[in-house]
Amino acid sequence: MDGIDHYKRAEELAERLASGHGSDYSRPIFATLAQTHATLALAAATADATAFKRALAKANGVDLNAKPKAAPKPVNLLDDEDM
User: Fold this and answer.
1) Considering only Cβ atoms within 10 Å of each terminal Cβ, which end of the chain, N or C, has fewer?
2) Among 47, 32, 40, residue whose Cα is nearest residue 5
């Protein structure tokens, strides 16, 4: 299953709970399954977003593993020596 499939399954299970289907015994099981599928859908979406960010950076020639450059030295515009 991919993220979309997990999301759809979570919705189906949640609708089943909301409509009152199932016995008192099965309702907690449906709730647990719905929550599990919702969590897996969120994890898949996060992984997809991370993969997209990396692919976009690579396409733009950005190395995400490179160390950041040092900040430039600040310039004091009020220094009297420059006058």
Assistant:
1) C
2) 40
Question: What is the identity of the amino acid at 46?
Answer: T
pTM of the predicted model, to two decimals?
Answer: 0.62
Rounded CA separation 83/67 (Å) = 38
Is there a contact between 2 and 44 (Cβ–Cβ < 8 Å)? yes
Q: For the residues 5-11, what does the mean pLDDT come to?
A: 94
Tell me, what DSSP letter sits at residue 66?
S
Buried b (16+ CB within 10 A) or exposed e, 8-29: ebbeebbebbeeeeeeeeeeee
**pLDDT tens digits, residue range 36-70?**
999 999 999 998 888 888 888 888 888 888 887 88
Alpha-carbon span 8 to 80, nearest angstrom: 68
The span from the CA of 76 to the CA of 10, in Å, is 59
